[in-house]
Write a structure and sequence with these properties.
There is one protein chain. About 50% of the residues lie in helices and about 15% in strands. α2 packs across α4 and α3 crosses α4. It is globular. It folds into two domains: about 80 residues, no CATH class; about 190 residues, no CATH class. A seven-stranded mixed beta sheet has the order 1-9-8-2-5-3-4. A two-stranded antiparallel sheet has the order 6-7. It is built from eleven helices and nine strands. A hairpin with a 2-residue loop joins β6 and β7.
């Protein structure tokens, strides 16, 4: 509860600051996190070394610090959302390959957007929810519950549904797809512990299979997308061609095949923007 109260105090301050000042304060917080969150920093650097095997120690350290900065800015963006409007956010987002979204939704089976933990997804989700189709974020529940409630309420104000990563949330995902809506989820970390071992940057890692399984069952297209911060603190959303999961009759093999295809996209996304892939968690064996 004490941590949550600290979060709300910081959020109250950042919400009322001009965006550049909010970022300046966020970078101060990032510096504190860099100094005191040694375990998180060690895990992040371990993960970056796996993703960037050719990088030397200095490059990994510099990338990790930029990562902390970008993640702190993403939190500042989130903390300012209670006063944000879709109109204000619209000018912050550039979209590349938007026609893939239109192509996928045209099938009338909803859309499963698959990505990694990077960028400020709330910006893209709020705009798409207001202009294309309702958007839901299928993500892990946060602790304490008061913090999760704040996240959910804040996102809902901008038209973004928050679906918990559990059986009840999964049912809501299926219902949303049946209604032709868009669901966004990240599969670079197996939060629920139900994933399968897949080669991820050449090393076995547990990867969630939910998107692949749902796509095979419902016929919903899968769309790899990344949202990343540009040097001017606007955002770029980039999509790739939809993946249409075709069942062969061997469900286990099909789920693995589609999941591996998604992971190959994640690898390209993360290698292109490692300074924005904030993953200070254990993914591979040997991590601190």
């Amino acid at each position: 509860m004490l941590a949550y109260r600290g979060f709300r105090v910081l959020q109250w301050v950042i919400e009322r600051l001009p965006r550049p000042w909010a970022y300046a304060l966020a970078i101060v917080v990032a510096r504190l996190g860099w100094v005191f969150s040694r375990n998180a920093r060690a895990r992040l650097e371990f993960n970056l070394r796996v993703a960037l095997p050719e990088a030397d120690a200095r490059t990994i350290r510099r990338t990790a610090w930029r990562n902390f900065r970008n993640h702190a800015k993403a939190y500042a963006d989130l903390m300012q959302l209670p006063r944000a409007t879709v109109g204000e956010l619209r000018s912050l987002l550039k979209v590349r390959n938007h026609h893939f979204v239109d192509e996928a939704l045209a099938a009338g089976k909803g859309l499963l957007v698959v990505s990694a933990h990077m960028g400020s997804w709330e910006v893209a989700a709020a705009i798409w929810s207001a202009t294309i189709t309702p958007v839901g974020l299928f993500a892990e529940e946060l602790e304490p519950p008061e913090l999760y409630d704040w996240y959910r309420t804040t996102r809902q104000r901008l038209g973004i549904s928050v679906l918990p990563l559990n059986r009840a949330g999964l049912k809501q995902v299926v219902q949303a797809l049946d209604a032709g809506e868009m669901i966004v989820t990240a599969i670079d970390r197996d939060v629920s512990g139900t994933g399968i071992l897949v080669d991820f940057f050449g090393k076995p890692a547990h990867i969630p299979t939910g998107p692949a399984a749902i796509a095979l069952r419902k016929g919903a297209p899968l769309l790899p997308v990344c949202v990343f911060r540009l040097p001017d603190d606007t955002f770029q959303a980039e999509g790739w061609a939809p993946i249409w999961a075709q069942p062969s009759g061997d469900r286990v093999a099909d789920v693995r095949r589609v999941t591996e295809e998604l992971v190959r996209h994640l690898e390209r996304i993360i290698r292109a923007h490692p300074e924005q892939w904030h993953m200070p968690h254990r993914i591979w064996e040997g991590s601190p």
